[in-house]
Amino acid sequence: MSCPKVLTGIIILFLYLVTWSLPPAGPLVEYGPAKMSMAAYFEQSGQDIFKPGQAAVSSHYQIGGLLSYSPFKFLQFFSFFGASQFDHNASELYPGIGFNGEFDLNYGGGLRLNSPRVAAEVIGISLFGGAGLWQAEDSDTKHVREGKEYQAGGQLTFMAGKHLLIGLGGEFYLLDGSQKSPNSPQKSSFANQDLGRGLITLEYYPTTTEGALKGRPFINIHAKITPNVGYDEHLGLKNAAIGISVGLISDFLYGPYKALADESE
């Protein structure tokens, strides 16, 4: 088998994998070429599911590690590995039946495209897209919930000095869920009601580090909000999400050395 065919197969397989999941929060800033980032993340989201007028409030917690690679300055590939928990309360559609899922594995990847910056290198555009996959089981009832999450969106980004990046935009979000009872082989479906969410991101970069962990630390905080945002006393945020990731953007991995933006300070 020729090298071009092998390379093509690897690319197709990688693209297939990355379309299955988009990480909760990766570095928003463009940081290539030839760099990687590592981070720990946490996100809590909630949405109304099932049918209008018969909705249940759901809650989804995600925690794990995030790895990204930027072969070019304006392109980033992500992968993540962690655990998630999915719960929802009872609804008129399923009266008296709630769901209390255990933590289970979630994993995947995604990609982001960033534009060159204009207006004295202050303003840029960031686009992303992908999907997610998770599963949860209620240990008491043995009911199982599965979800595929599809996301696509963009942000207008503003660099406020060398240490703060602000992102404002929105995303399309679809939760394509299914549920299965231990007493029946049939699955029934559910979905979220609000498909559009506003997206706000704050990303802070402290001073660069030296030694074995030489690079640029970052803290990413984001909020995703729908017109029906609210709060449930038992499950937390409703029709919204909030998350944080803390990590490090590496020094150059290969090629000609170029100093990080704030190394001269």
SSE blueprint:
Elements: H1 3-18, E1 35-49, E2 56-72, E3 75-88, E4 99-100, E5 104-114, E6 123-137, E7 144-159, E8 164-180, E9 187-191, E10 196-204, E11 215-232, E12 236-250
Antiparallel strand pairs: 1-2, 1-12, 2-3, 3-4, 3-5, 5-6, 6-7, 7-8, 8-9, 8-10, 10-11, 11-12
Report what the structure shows.
This protein is mainly β. The protein has a single domain (3-250), classed as Lipocalin, CATH 2.40.128. Helices cover 6% and strands 58% of the residues. The protein is built from 1 helix and 12 strands; from the N terminus they run H-E-E-E-E-E-E-E-E-E-E-E-E. It has one helix at residues 3-18, and strands at 35-49, 56-72, 75-88, 99-100, 104-114, 123-137, 144-159, 164-180, 187-191, 196-204, 215-232, 236-250. 36% of the residues are buried. The model is unreliable at 10-22 and 259-265 (pLDDT under 50).
Short description:
The protein has 265 residues and is mainly beta.
Please identify the top-level CATH class. Answer: Mainly Beta
Order of helices and strands: HEEEEEEEEEEEE
The span between the termini is: 51 Å
Shape: elongated
Main β-sheet, in a few words?
Answer: 10 strands, antiparallel, barrel
Kindly name the structural category. Answer: mainly beta
Structural descriptors:
ten-stranded antiparallel barrel; disordered C terminus; mainly beta; elongated; 265 residues; single chain
